[in-house]
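Objective 1b. Sequence-to-structure analysis of BrnA antitoxin family protein.
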Amino acid sequence: MAIDRTRRPSDPRQAAEAAFRAVTRKTPEAAAPAAPKAAIVPGVRETVSLRIDKAVLEHFQKDGPGWQDRINAALKAAAGL
């Protein structure tokens, strides 16, 4: 029986490493499509979590609904905006 030497011997480890490199290879950033930029809308508010003293929260909530707007206005005034 003759051995066919025209075929390359397959090495499972090399095949696995080549497959891993093909999957994990980073694409150049220039070739990657640019992500669309989010439209900037004036006056949009962002939801945040803020820790404030209970007394401060109660002060702004005592006048009822709109307390978040009042806190925002006070913060803008304090920041000079």
